[in-house]
From TrEMBL:
Principal location listed in the UniProt entry: cytoplasm
Locations listed in the record: Cytoplasm
Ras-associating domain sequence ranges: 28-135
Protein name: Uncharacterized protein
Lineage of origin: Eukaryota, Metazoa, Ecdysozoa, Nematoda, Chromadorea
Organism in which the protein naturally occurs: Caenorhabditis brenneri
């Protein structure tokens, strides 16, 4: 199974990123707004505002709602559910999930994406909705404020279901004339009519709409619960999940979805839709499960440490990830696992013009309170060498202070205790301060003396050592001296200024990389279910690598070269399966067929793979 995503090419049309609610304190209560039966913020009368402690469970919250509404007197908690829902004020539902009775709604709302500064009727909001258990079955969907709104949603769904067969082709393989032009025209026409997905046989092409698109709500999820065969319903990412799931159960083999596309084309967004549908498939409904909750909380953590603003995407993943959702033989989720690849380390010490370092640095610097600023020796972004080489530090429409709160909540939900969080933020500050260590040449008598580098600002080394809980002398030695182990003796030599600077930068990259791996390890521990009775099982893997980039006149970094190679390799896999193997099969079966010409990238891939042919010269 493959999935390919294509960008709409809307350069400069960046999505607004997450925004936030207020800081929380363990001792305080938190306000939770619950919408009664519907998601319509215009009906304020239908909203209950409750002051609850952060450890208040869903069940307790439902109890409080029942106690506060005279018309619900005498009703049982068991008959009601609380849903977290994302939708626009006009009633278009984007996503919906039922909370487990033991879940903490305060923790759930703390990691919701925040509203942008400018809010209009098309801006999706997260809400809690309170419903009777029998509600869905009786109405077949979500009830909205007015009949008018309800009919407009149904019209959207009807338009989605009745896609023209003769003009726009839902599967590009059915195009009567297959050329690059007809293919692009077809995609363009479908996109203009609101159909962002198109198949090419078993591959799904997604054209990024760069706006709220209400096609991931439970109505669509339910449609694709039993589709089983691609093409029986209009193209959709849920159909890919559905086919994978049923194939896994039918042929009893692990499945994999490969997502590729250039940076900003929507790979991570598609991964999230796939994941949420794959998990809800095993529940046969849009209910939550602990794996999904942990994955939901893990998202903001991985994003803060592994995503950054780039020229093409203001929330670009700078690492590849392979998410495995594990299933028991009976199709129930038994846990998940995240593997990461190739974190872009060069970004930690240097960013291209118009790009930023990893989000977490800015979140910490903006979000830390006075006490934390002192504890972590924090400065302003402009005062750090690793941040001040480029503008901008500030991202329009994003409140970094609130993002820091959201990150801390997400970290707590994944299981990072307060002490571990402090250690992590201490390390983040240490990485930044490392960049501020400067060297001078000190002329001394003796061999090579004029090349020796000495630290100019030892007080900064002191701070870094303090944050990393190591001895200052040890750190000083590591930053200025190298050891050569000879046959009979060990020689210690002082670095030149440029060598020492490189060592400092390498240390910063290495520390950050180790920290990121540690965070992933902890997330995996939280995702691991201690259910050893599960016995044999399978997994569905989703590969979301970071996108191909060609920076043109500037030099691609070594890391970008590696990721571009990974993308070429995927393309070669795609070519083999879609063209080469398929055409060979036709030939074998004697089907009359004119071979399709395609750009074969084998030579490019081999250039990197064959050791004798590929040599990089490092300067
Ligand atoms: N299906 C979708 N519906 C609505 N918006 C989308 C969709 N897919 C992507 N987007 C928008 O496009 C933006 C970029 O998408 P995303 O971060 O998933 O790209 P990416 O391919 O993972 O990029 P990178 O390789 O840089 O990580 C998202 O923040 C989102 O606003
Ligand atoms: Mg991404």
């Amino acid at each position: 199974m493959s999935f390919d995503s294509i960008s709409a090419g809307a350069t400069g049309c960046f999505p607004r990123r997450a925004h936030t609610i207020n800081a929380t304190d363990d001792a305080h209560t938190h306000t939770v707004a619950v919408y009664m039966h519907s998601f319509n913020p215009d009906c304020e009368n239908d909203t209950v505002h409750l002051e609850v402690h952060k450890r208040c469970t869903t069940e307790e919250l439902i109890e409080k709602v029942l106690a506060g509404r005279a018309e619900l007197e005498g009703q049982s908690v068991q008959d009601f559910d609380l849903f977290e829902m994302m939708g626009t004020p006009d009633g278009q539902t984007y996503k919906e999930r039922r909370l487990d009775p033991g879940e903490y709604p305060v923790a759930v709302q703390a990691i919701w994406s925040r509203l942008p500064v400018v809010v209009d009727s098309a801006t999706p909001k997260n809400r809690f909705v309170f419903r009777h258990r029998g509600y869905r079955a009786a109405t077949g969907g979500t009830r909205f404020g007015s009949a008018e709104v309800a009919s407009s949603i149904d019209a959207f769904l009807t338009k989605f279901l009745v896609q023209p067969q003769d003009r726009e082709y839902a599967d590009l393989c059915m195009l009567p004339e297959l050329t690059e032009q007809t293919l692009l025209d077809n995609l363009r026409e479908r996109f203009a009519n609101g159909h962002i997905y198109t198949y090419i046989g078993p591959i799904l092409v997604a054209v990024n709409p760069f706006c709220f698109f209400p096609i991931y709500n439970p109505k669509y999820a339910r449609l694709y619960f039993q589709s089983k065969r691609l093409g029986s319903l209009p193209p959709h990412i849920f159909a890919i999940a559905d086919v994978c799931y049923h194939n896994m159960l039918r042929i009893k083999e692990n499945q994999c979805v490969v997502i590729s596309g250039e940076s900003g084309s929507g790979k991570t967004e598609s991964t999230n839709h796939l994941m949420s549908h794959l998990i809800s498939l095993s529940q046969k409904g849009s209910t939550g499960c602990s794996t999904e909750q942990t994955l939901l909380s893990a998202g903001p953590v991985l994003e803060a440490f592994g995503n950054a603003v780039t020229l093409t995407n203001n929330n670009s993943s700078r690492f590849g990830k392979f998410i495995k959702i594990n299933y028991r033989e009976n199709g129930m989720v038994s846990g998940a696992n995240v593997e990461i690849y190739l974190l872009e380390k060069s970004r930690i010490i240097f960013q291209t013009k118009g790009e930023r370092n990893y989000h977490v640095f800015y979140y910490l610097l903006e979000g830390a309170d006075e006490e934390e600023r002192k504890k972590y020796f924090l400065l302003k972004p402009n005062d750090y060498k690793y941040l001040n080489q480029n503008e901008p530090f500030v991202l329009e429409g994003v409140n970094e202070r609130n993002e820091f709160d959201r990150l801390r909540h997400a970290m707590s939900s994944v299981g990072f205790c307060a002490k571990t969080q402090q250690t992590i933020f201490g390390i983040i500050s240490a990485v930044l301060l490392l960049g501020n260590i400067t060297y001078i040449k000190v002329s001394r008598h003796g061999y090579h003396s004029d090349e020796s580098g000495y630290i100019e600002n030892e007080e900064v080394v002191d701070l870094v050592a303090n944050l990393l809980h190591i001895r200052t002398e040890t750190l000083m030695q590591a930053l200025t001296m190298k050891r050569h182990v000879m046959k009979t003796e060990t020689v210690v030599l002082r670095y030149s200024v440029s060598e020492a600077t490189n060592t400092r930068d390498a240390m910063a990259k290495c520390i950050y990389n180790s920290l990121f791996h540690y965070i992933v390890l902890r997330i995996n521990q939280a995702l691991l279910k201690k259910d050893f009775s599960a016995g044999k099982g399978y997994y569905i893997g989703i590969l979301d690598i970071f996108g191909f980039e060609d920076v043109g006149a500037q030099c691609n970094s070594f890391e970008q070269l590696c990721i571009n190679y990974a993308n070429e390799k995927l393309q070669s896999y795609f070519n083999q399966h879609i063209f080469q193997f398929e055409q060979e099969e036709y030939l074998k079966e004697g089907i009359s067929w004119t071979n399709i010409e395609y750009t074969d990238n084998t030579e490019c891939v081999q250039l990197f793979q064959v050791r004798e042919e590929f040599q990089i010269h490092f300067h």
